[in-house]
């Protein structure tokens, strides 16, 4: 039998496409490159894919469809594209609010976007009274109404369903997690806000965003020094602390969780968003940090062969680890690649779009650890280098975090010319300032290529009060050398020349405010044309936000984390030699100085 | 290409079967009607399907296989049937301990059996050290070792995996739930006990069994009056009480949960089994009882159209409702058929094997409610009749529960001849005693067919102190009439004549001690040859035990509960007429009196 085809004209674009008789209009629009909202995935229960039927067949809508259209203030010539079957030539107008919305993922760096398709959704509906003769169970009615036969219902939500306040024939709202679990149910008038929490759980700094799950936009952002720092400045010292005594694990966990709870409180006060309107949290941290945050012992990370306990973790209740959100809120932990390449990197890769790069590409996260990921063809490999806390301004005699008063840039005008954050009097030097100072000192001959301070004073005097000692210079030199040798060895492992790199993505807040020329000249970044280098900012936090807002991004990240190979540089025979070589500032004298 | 076949000789049976080259020996044995243990479902991780290879190829075993065989004290000529591939003619001897074990389900009644395949299993293993170069996550090693790639791990279990006590190269034991979740992990020497809890949550009586999940046998049994009774004797009064005030729901729930926790304590003391060795609980109760036990509001059960909130419920953590078992123990609630036919009936049907009956069959559970299920061909339908508490001896002037001192049987020898439980002096009359007394009184003409007490005294005098009033007789008459009319109408609905019933299964502890002849003569049971009637005892408790021990039985019960139709007798036009007719004791005078 010959199939019947009809023409679908799509306005305002004016596109015309052919559709098979009986085809779902939403599918036709996708084929025409005009995807509509994925909010309820074509189950006809959210009303977000409404279109206007300008001409063509217009059958009566189902009562639920009519209610959803009315709820959006739309007239009788509108229909849900996911429920409309093409039965004749038709002319439709798409509505701005029905199109699939893209969100920007990164604050800085290369453009990257995702569609809004959060794990947590809120669907409004009215349950009808069942027949008296054979009453169905309320939960089964809800499953049928949401077209989710396998929907799991938490006991508290079930109990509300059995309560008088949510009886049939009243508008109620179901809060769903990943289309498979009912987190809560409430009268529709309870308010439509729906928030998520993105957590970048850094060793030094913890950064949070309160994310509107309806739009994918951050409503507020806050950060603070990781309260675990009092138990150890770096990851290794915290692992050691936790290993000493099971109580210490609890202390570390409590410190981090309390800090996050406090910071949530700050954002809730500032924005007026109630805590119980936060239904989902995504945590991106390095392997040790996310283990400790989940209360998982890290003894196996303390001793060879340095095993993580988990790589990927299914979402679990936030209440299980004491996060004060909605009582049924869930936590998703960004999957770890391996013991020393954590979920923060997976999140960063997802946000920075490394996987989408066409040629060979490099991702470097410059923090206390320097994580390096190389992509070549379809292959990915990651490694971690112990840069130490110098880039965070730690362990440097006059070092400090990148906060107001810190020297963050330096040049030369007959002496060091310093810039400070917020133009306050210089109180110390943060990571980016250290890079500039060393670059200037090398260019001016105050520092030898071997990192030795020239002249009798053995100090780089910055102001009357501030100076860098030989030890300070050595610490920065070691940090730079660790990253540089890591990059060189990873490129060698993949047989990629630095010059062939299409793209170098530099993550971390340190990275984002770096002087590119100085960083390359010093050897911290590979020697590629500067326009191939992009700073992507706190890509760990951006990735956490992405995972809140996009379920497909989570699935892709899980697959990517499982696929990335791990390279243990220390077991390579050329590791020592390369590291020693990387300590030399051999790109000096610079061409331009 | 022609396939190659080999002969497999199976001893001690002496059976010979043909096997394709490369076929798994365990599958060959299943085909030969000799199924082996399903414990780990052919993943080669439990060692329970070991056989002895008497002749034929004997390749070296894998290290894990060798360890499992050693653990069972078996020699080098043994192999796991699930790992052994047939590569030549082979002669094998099955071991008694490797065969799939059947358990008896019911204490009384028709034989019925299931294979031991519990939701909770304990598997012993040794994790190997991963390579230093690229260490895998411990959880991933465990998943690979258990051949369960999707295994979910609760955070506390994960934390133990990360602890020093369970490092690689030590024998550890994984406690799995339904092959998909790790409940706990412990050193193997922690003890191999594995228990489950079966709960029959009756309106009047709560009965518990502590079940050894390795054998399927009850280690202990205990029962007590439902502590909720102080808030109302029957289901309706408890629903009403819960409906009045949300705090009342909590009171009811707490009463039941505390009672169950106390009874668990009693069994644990008596048997020496620690609470934390109980990993699974199955609760079978009527719809209102299981809702309340789970803390789910029952407002929708209080008002028309009398909706249950849930029918089937995925297993959830026991800690969520305050049951004091292993911290990660799960609770499975036997699925409800409909609002007034609960999980106790589903459990009873599963245990009594109604689904397996060949001809038309009837299942009657005689409790405070009389639930009736008819089977005809592949169709099932259920209804519930309000028998009231008379069968439990409640609301009768001299009534009492079936406890020591209760009159449980009666005959005639120039006056009522009474038997009491434990031969104590008669303190009151329980349900079975009431049936006998009415039957005797009818046979002796002390009672008219309309239930009126003959003679001036208007009492049936039993002893100096005990007698039944007209009101007592009326209550029993109403209870019998409710069940009788329910049975008549259900048979009419299904166009089945009582005489055509192949099997009548009578459940409930009341039912089990009933005098069959009297029950039929009085009209409580349908008029069929007595050998077609079987008492199945507390089939709700037996079903709960079955669900603990057999996962396939759970799956079958879920399917059955979803399939059973519900008949609302009260909306039938002939309901009133039939009920009035059923109040007449029209089978008197009996043929034999």
Features:
593 residues, alpha/beta, Ubiquitin-like (UB roll), Nucleotidyltransferase, domain 5, six-stranded mixed β-sheet, 16 helices
Annotate the secondary structure layout.
The structure is a homodimer of 593-residue chains.
Chain A: E1 5-11, E2 15-20, H1 25-31, E3 50-55, H2 63-71, E4 78-80, E5 90-94, E6 102-104, E7 113-115, E8 120-126, H3 138-145, E9 152-153, H4 155-161, E10 171-177, E11 181-187, E12 195-201, E13 205-212, E14 218-225, H5 235-244, H6 246-271, E15 278-285, H7 287-293, H8 299-302, E16 316-317, E17 330-333, H9 343-352, E18 361-366, E19 370-376, E20 379-385, E21 406-412, E22 416-420, E23 428-429, H10 431-443, E24 459-461, E25 467-469, H11 470-493, E26 503-507, H12 509-512, H13 516-522, E27 533-537, H14 539-549, H15 551-563, E28 565-566, H16 575-582
Parallel strand pairs in A: 1-5, 9-11, 12-15, 15-17, 18-26, 20-28, 21-23, 26-27
Antiparallel strand pairs in A: 1-2, 3-4, 3-5, 6-7, 8-10, 10-11, 12-13, 13-14, 16-17, 18-19, 19-20, 21-22, 24-25
Folded structure, characterized:
Two copies of one chain form a homodimer. In chain A, strand 1 (5-11) and strand 2 form a beta hairpin. Chain A is of the alpha/beta class. Chains A and B meet through helix 3, strand 9, helix 4, helix 8 and strand 28 of A and helix 3, strand 9, helix 4, helix 8 and strand 28 of B.
């Amino acid at each position: 039998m010959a199939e019947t085809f009809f023409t679908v004209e799509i306005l305002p674009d004016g596109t015309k496409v052919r559709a098979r008789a009986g085809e779902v209009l939403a599918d036709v629009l996708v084929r025409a490159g005009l995807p509509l909202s994925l909010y309820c995935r074509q189950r006809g229960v959210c009303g977000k894919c409404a279109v206007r039927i300008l001409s063509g067949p217009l059958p009566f809508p189902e009562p639920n469809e009519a209610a959803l259209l009315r709820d959006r203030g739309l007239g009788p010539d509108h229909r849900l594209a996911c429920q409309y079957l093409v039965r004749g030539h038709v002319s439709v107008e798409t509505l701005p609010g029905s199109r699939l919305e893209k969100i920007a993922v990164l604050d800085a760096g290369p453009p990257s976007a995702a569609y809004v398709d959060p794990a947590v959704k809120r669907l409004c509906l009215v349950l009808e009274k069942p027949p008296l003769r054979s009453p169905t169970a309320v939960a089964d009615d809800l499953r049928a109404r949401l077209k989710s036969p396998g929907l799991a219902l938490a006991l508290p939500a079930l109990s509300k369903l059995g309560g008088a306040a949510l009886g049939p024939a009243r508008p109620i709202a179901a809060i769903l997690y990943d289309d498979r679990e009912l987190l809560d149910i409430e009268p529709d008038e309870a308010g439509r806000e729906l928030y998520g929490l993105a957590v970048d759980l850094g060793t030094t700094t913890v950064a949070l965003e309160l994310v509107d799950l309806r739009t994918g936009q951050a409503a507020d952002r806050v950060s603070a020094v990781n309260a675990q720092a009092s138990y150890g400045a770096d990851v290794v010292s915290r692992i050691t602390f936790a290993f000493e005594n099971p109580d210490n694990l609890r202390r570390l966990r409590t410190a981090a969780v309390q800090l996050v709870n406090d910071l949530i409180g700050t954002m809730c006060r500032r924005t007026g968003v109630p805590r119980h309107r936060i239904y989902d949290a995504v945590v991106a941290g390095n392997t040790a940090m996310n283990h400790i945050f989940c209360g998982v012992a890290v003894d196996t990370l303390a001793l060879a062969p340095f095993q993580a306990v988990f790589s990927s973790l299914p979402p679990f209740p936030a209440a299980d680890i004491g996060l004060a959100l909605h009582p049924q809120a869930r936590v998703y932990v960004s999957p770890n690649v391996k013991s020393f390449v954590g979920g923060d990197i997976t999140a960063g890769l997802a946000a920075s779009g490394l996987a989408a790069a066409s040629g060979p590409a490099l991702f470097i996260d410059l923090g206390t650890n320097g994580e390096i990921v190389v992509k070549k063809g379809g292959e990915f490999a990651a490694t971690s280098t112990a840069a130490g806390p110098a880039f965070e301004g730690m362990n440097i005699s006059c070092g400090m975090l990148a906060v107001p008063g810190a020297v963050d840039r330096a040049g030369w005008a007959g002496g060091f010319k310093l810039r400070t954050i917020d133009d306050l009097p210089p109180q110390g030097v943060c990571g980016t300032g250290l890079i500039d100072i060393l670059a200037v000192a090398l260019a001016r001959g105050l520092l030898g290529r071997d990192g030795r301070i020239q002249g009798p004073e053995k100090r780089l005097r910055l102001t009357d009060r501030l100076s860098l000692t030989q030890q300070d210079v050595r610490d920065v030199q070691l940090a730079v050398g660790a990253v540089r040798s890591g990059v060189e060895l990873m490129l060698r492992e993949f047989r990629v020349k630095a010059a062939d790199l299409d793209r170098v993505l530099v993550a971390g807040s340190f990275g984002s405010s770096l002087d590119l020329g100085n960083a390359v000249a010093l050897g911290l970044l590979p020697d590629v044309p500067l326009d191939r280098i992009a700073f992507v900012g706190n890509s760990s936090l951006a990735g956490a936000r992405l995972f809140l807002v996009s379920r497909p991004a989570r699935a892709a990240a899980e697959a990517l984390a499982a696929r990335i190979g791990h390279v243990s540089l220390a077991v390579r025979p050329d590791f020592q030699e390369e590291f020693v070589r990387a300590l030399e500032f051999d790109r000096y004298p610079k061409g331009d100085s």
